[in-house]
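Sample intake sheet
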Amino acid sequence: MSEAFSSLESRRARTRKLCRLLSERVGQVASPGLGRLDWVWEAVEEPSTRLLDQLAKWEATGKEEHMDRAKAETLAVLEAWKSAEREYRRQRSARREGVPA
């Protein structure tokens, strides 16, 4: 365990920072209102659950391996949002052209 993150509060602060950064990145790649669509939440659920599991392990143990895995999962979550954004744009474009999505 890193000396800098030896307390639970310091690990929670690091978790919050990682989540804020992820939230900012999602906000940059996702259209406004994308999160109102149920299918989007289904698309991001699996990587989000894996991320939350790794963050819980990190907070409980302070083992850097869990934070490393959490960081990797943030990339998977971000990619899921990007994929949902691409699908949303595809569907929106198809509707404009009168093609069934």
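Comment: The longest helix spans residues 64-96. Helices lie at 8-29, 38-61, 64-96.
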